[in-house]
């Protein structure tokens, strides 16, 4: 058999040649040897409709010119084509392909499975290592149940598309029911997602150790926020980084229990490009090391954290468009900037913080940018480094502001879901959301201010039940804290504003209801459009008596409802 002159292929100790290929360099089937030399311009190829993967000592390795020694294998597998919108077709390669609860060896790179056992319904103690780009560890699809018990997966190199699971360590799609017991997963690469859940898949993760590290972006990469092409977090969120530990899309459901998930940048537990997704996290620790968000909820998405910890130098959780977030059962959120930040679209999501949860933020504890939302706080502790409990403001995202002007900013081919000049109307589901920020605080003791700095967009309605509040509650105007409009070079200043209290300009601009057993300690002049004081509620000043005026006339502070230009000042 003749070989191309530039391709030197060694043989094993077997008498037959180890590397059988035709004159064009096509490898007809999986082959192994102890030595492989590939000269420049002479890469072996797979037959049409097939893919070729190189492994060395069980490690998936880029197929490139060079000398390879050890347990060397060239594995031929069936193509796994995936179309994501209008992008070029993705061709998936994976160490283990499972369909309808059973391994499909024609689509699996068996040489990349180190140790363990693989059978129908279950795989135990498998080891998968990759130093090449866009290689998947385990891909589970179809119907039926599958269990991965104690898998260890280590991957180095960039992924291909974390909206589609291209290059993910674990991927579940179709109608698969996947259980991960005690997995250890580490990835090092841009968009090299550890865990991807799509289609109608349901995934249970128990006792996981997952860690993802940023990678190096390609030399020709240009910043974009286009789905499927994006390889780093949109800087307009005030964040940096290029890897998400997980992504939940389509109609997937994800359960995480007793796990530790850690990401260097961008984010840990994300949802994106979805139709209806649900995430449930219990008894788990979620950490960001260099920056990013703990969790992201967008569209018809509900992320629930119970008895868990979220720590981030930046943001604890983000709610986008209609996304909702629940922090319950003594969950702890420690965030360097914003505890929870909401942005994009028309809003309509719900933030719930209750049952002994603690939310600690370096800046505003809850920041609402340009959208309406519902907030429910009950029996929780909320603290803020800059004494702002709730900040409503117009969105200072430079991209969104350009879109509002009818422009398509550089880095965007088209407005993404939940954004655009229509306020995300084309992407909303159900009735048009209330443009107001409607919040209820029950059984709480809060020290800090509540500001509505977006009167032109919507009002703020605050109800306090059995609450003690010390701070200002007022309509306001906002300005960048740095004195300059933030741009990409100053992305960490996005969202950081100062407030100037100004009279309410609309009837619903700031509606405050003080329920029974509620005490408000006013610390500075506060402007409202409506104030209701229930029997048993009280108002006092931090450094003197409080004066209540309505439409310029002083009124005694007693139970009742006051509407108009309502002002409370401390004498």
Largest sheet: 18 strands, mixed
Span between N and C termini? 99 Å
Integer average pLDDT: 93
Unreliable stretches (pLDDT < 50, length at least 5) are: 1-17, 418-427
Count structural domains.
3
Q: What best-fitting shape do the alpha-carbon axes yield?
A: elongated
Give the strand tally: 53
- Going by helix content, strand content and strand pairing, the class is mainly beta
**Radius of gyration over all CA atoms, rounded:** 28 Å
- Range of helix content: under 10%
Assess the beta-strand content as a share of residues.
over 45%
**Can you count the helices?**
1
Fold and architecture overview:
The protein has 571 residues and is mostly beta strands. The protein folds into three domains: 1-78, no CATH class; 84-291; 317-571, no CATH class. The chain is built from one helix and 53 strands. It has an 18-stranded mixed β-sheet, with no helix packed on it. A hairpin with a 2-residue loop joins strand 2 (50-56) and strand 3. It starts with 30 loop residues before the first strand and ends with a strand. Mean pLDDT is 93; it is low at 1-17 and 418-427.
């Amino acid at each position: 058999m003749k070989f191309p002159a530039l391709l030197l292929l060694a043989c094993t100790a077997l008498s037959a040649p180890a590397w059988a290929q035709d004159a064009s360099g096509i490898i007809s089937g999986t082959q192994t040897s102890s030595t492989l030399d590939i000269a420049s311009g002479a890469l072996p190829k797979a037959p049409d409709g097939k893919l070729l993967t190189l492994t060395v000592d069980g490690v998936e390795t880029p197929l490139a010119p060079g000398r390879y020694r050890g347990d060397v294998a060239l594995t031929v597998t069936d193509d796994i084509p995936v179309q994501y919108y209008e992008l070029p077709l993705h061709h998936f390669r994976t160490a283990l392909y499972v369909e309808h609860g059973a391994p499909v060896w024609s689509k699996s790179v068996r040489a990349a499975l180190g140790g363990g056992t693989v059978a129908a319904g279950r795989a135990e103690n498998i080891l998968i290592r990759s130093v090449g780009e866009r290689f998947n560890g385990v891909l589970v699809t179809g119907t039926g149940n599958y269990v991965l018990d104690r898998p260890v997966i280590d991957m180095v190199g960039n992924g291909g598309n974390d909206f589609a699971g291209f290059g993910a360590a674990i991927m579940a799609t179709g109608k698969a029911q996947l259980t991960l017991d005690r997995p250890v997963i580490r990835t090092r690469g841009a968009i090299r997602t550890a865990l991807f859940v799509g289609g109608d898949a349901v995934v249970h993760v128990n006792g996981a150790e997952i860690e993802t590290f940023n990678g190096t972006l390609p030399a020709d990469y240009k910043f974009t926020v286009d789905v499927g092409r994006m390889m780093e977090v949109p800087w307009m969120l005030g964040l940096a980084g290029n890897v998400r530990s997980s992504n939940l899309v389509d109609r997937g459901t994800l359960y995480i229990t007793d796990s530790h998930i850690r990401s260097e940048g961008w984010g840990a537990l994300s949802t994106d490009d979805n139709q209806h997704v649900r995430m449930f996290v219990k008894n788990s620790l979620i950490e960001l090391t260099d920056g990013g968000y703990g969790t992201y909820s967008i569209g018809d998405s509900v992320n629930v954290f119970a008895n868990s910890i979220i720590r981030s130098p930046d943001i604890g959780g983000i709610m986008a468009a209609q996304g909702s977030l629940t922090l319950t059962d003594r969950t702890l959120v420690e965030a360097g900037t914003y505890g929870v930040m909401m942005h994009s679209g028309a809003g309509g999501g719900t933030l719930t913080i209750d049952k002994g949860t603690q939310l600690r933020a370096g800046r505003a504890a809850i920041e609402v940018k340009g959208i309406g939302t519902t907030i429910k706080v009950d029996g929780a502790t909320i603290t803020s480094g800059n004494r702002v409990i709730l900040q409503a403001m117009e969105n200072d995202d430079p991209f969104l502001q350009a879109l509002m002007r009818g422009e398509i900013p550089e880095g965007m081919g088209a407005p993404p879901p939940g954004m655009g000049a229509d306020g995300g109307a084309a992407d909303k589901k159900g009735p048009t959301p209330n443009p107001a920020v409607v919040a209820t605080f029950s059984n709480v003791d809060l020290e800090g201010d509540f500001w509505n700095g977006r009167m032109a967009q919507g009002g703020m309605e605050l109800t306090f039940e059995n609450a003690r509040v010390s701070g200002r509650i007022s309509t306001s105007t906002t300005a960048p804290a740095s004195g300059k409009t933030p741009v990409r070079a100053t992305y960490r200043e996005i969202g950081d504003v100062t407030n100037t209290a100004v009279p309410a300009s609309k009837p619903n601009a700031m509606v405050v209801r003080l329920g029974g057993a509620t005490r408000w300690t006013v610390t500075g002049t506060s402007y409202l459009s409506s104030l209701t004081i229930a029997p048993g509620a009280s108002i006092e000043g931090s450094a003197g008596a409080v004066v209540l005026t309505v439409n310029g006339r002083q009124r005694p502070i007693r139970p009742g409802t006051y509407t108009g230009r309502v002002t409370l000042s401390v004498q």
